[in-house]
Amino acid sequence: MLRLIAIFALLCSLTTAAAAQEATPDPRAETGGAQTLEDILRRQEGLAIDDEFRSSVTGDPDAAAPTSEQLGTRGGASDADLWRAYRYDSADITTQARGPAVTTLIQDRGVWWWQFREGPLLQYGAWLLGGTLIALALFYLFRGRVRIDGERTGRTITRFKAFERFGHWLLATSFIILGITGLISLFGRKVLIPAFGHDAFSTIAEFSKWVHNNISWAFMLALVIIFVMWVVHNLPDRTDIKWLLKGGGLFGGGHPPAKKFNAGQKLIFWSVILLGGSISASGLALLFPFELNMFAATFSKINAIGLPGLLGMEALPTELAPHEEMQYAQLWHAVVSFVLMAIIFAHIYIGSVGMEGAFDAMGSGEVEEQWAREHHSLWVDEVVAAERKEGSA
Amino acid sequence: MRAFLISLVALVVITVGSNQILNWLDFSAEQAAVSEQNVRLD
């Protein structure tokens, strides 16, 4: 009888234990406490999951081995515990770095930026510059140099005063050096290191970066000088439409009338001002890291007018880590610079080998009167009228 | 070409000068982003 009672008591205790286990099942028992398939599926659907099972597992200082023992403690936290604490922002971190970016320890969205910078940016940028040079060479071969059609008069007209030429050359030389040093920075890893080696490139890159950063102030100053001097002469008017419809006379049909600047020059002017201004803004954001964050605010405005939807795109991100702001600034800086470089190639071509007599305008400032009458007839009329007025006064 | 030569001189002066001014203002990315002491992040 006593045995029967003992067996009955044992069965009862086992049944109670089993029932207790069934009452509080551990959903992560099968995964050893890690996330389950259900957690993963919920996260993939964008649903919230209870992260308590891991957000709280960030180490136990009380469980740490004494420092006096062999292979002593790091505070009772394993590597995994430490990374979990980073992830859930519960780590006790000290650093010597300051600034907005310091609170972002891991920024994995920078991977796409790096891939884009190393791949399509270099590839399409090289194609754009190379393609422009080839197109200009072909144009020169087929069209030849634009000559002065009429007979030279031997008289000259002052096209640009000394300060105008100073502003132009300050902008031109700074832009050319910025372009070269920028390309050195951009293509260094892919082109220059394989060609010259790491040591040589290190010296080149260091000098190039110093020049690029500091010469940028001359570019920005010259941009302001050019804008103030020439904006009045570059406002669009009716003569521009006629000039554009005739293709500037580049393909025959006579020279269309133009004022001080023809429509082609106005397009160059506004390209330089707008693209150069944009390059300057993104350049300042790169010069002063994390101080000038422009892209999140710009993306918000673009989203507000619905532009991404019209282009069949998703809304642009409006919450950017400080590093992402810098990444977008770098890409924008490079892309717009490539476009402006291609435009300036065409400008340099037509201002030098492409057109007889054009370089004098920025060389000595004095142009042949016949050249001026062919390319800027309305401007010559204005100058002559002003001289007559002064003479009679 | 005097204007061109003067612009080259101005280019050098502005480039070196801007660097000197930023140094004189004690500005550098290191100055702006690094502390001599450890700081605790919020």
Features:
heterodimer, A: 393 residues, mainly alpha, Fumarate Reductase Cytochrome B subunit, two-stranded antiparallel sheet, 16 helices, 3% strand, B: 42 residues, alpha+beta
Topology:
The complex is a heterodimer of chains A (393) and B (42).
Chain A: H1 2-23, H2 37-44, H3 52-55, H4 79-87, E1 94-97, H5 110-118, H6 120-143, E2 156-158, H7 162-196, H8 198-230, H9 238-245, H10 263-287, H11 295-304, H12 307-310, H13 322-351, H14 360-363, E3 366-368, H15 369-375, H16 377-392
Antiparallel strand pairs in A: 2-3
Helix pairs in contact in A: 5-6, 6-13, 7-8, 8-10, 10-13, 15-16
Chain B: H1 2-24, H2 29-33, E1 34-40
Q: How would you explain this protein's 3D organization?
A:
The complex is a heterodimer of chains A (393) and B (42). By secondary structure, chain A is mainly α. Among the domains of chain A are: 39-94, no CATH class; 110-160 and 231-392, Fumarate Reductase Cytochrome B subunit (Up-down Bundle). Chain A is built from 16 helices and three strands. Chain A has a two-stranded antiparallel ribbon with strand order 2-3. The radius of gyration of chain A is 35 Å and the shape is elongated. The N and C termini of chain A lie far apart (142 Å). Chain B has 42 residues and is an alpha+beta fold. The mean pLDDT of chain B is 85. Chain B has a domain at 2-29. In chain B, 14% of the residues are buried. Chain B starts with a helix and ends with a strand. Chain B is rod-shaped, with a radius of gyration of 18 Å. Chain B has helices at residues 2-24, 29-33, and one strand at 34-40. At the A-B interface, β1, α7 and α8 of A face α1, α2 and β1 of B. β1 of chain A pairs antiparallel with β1 of chain B, so a sheet runs across the interface.
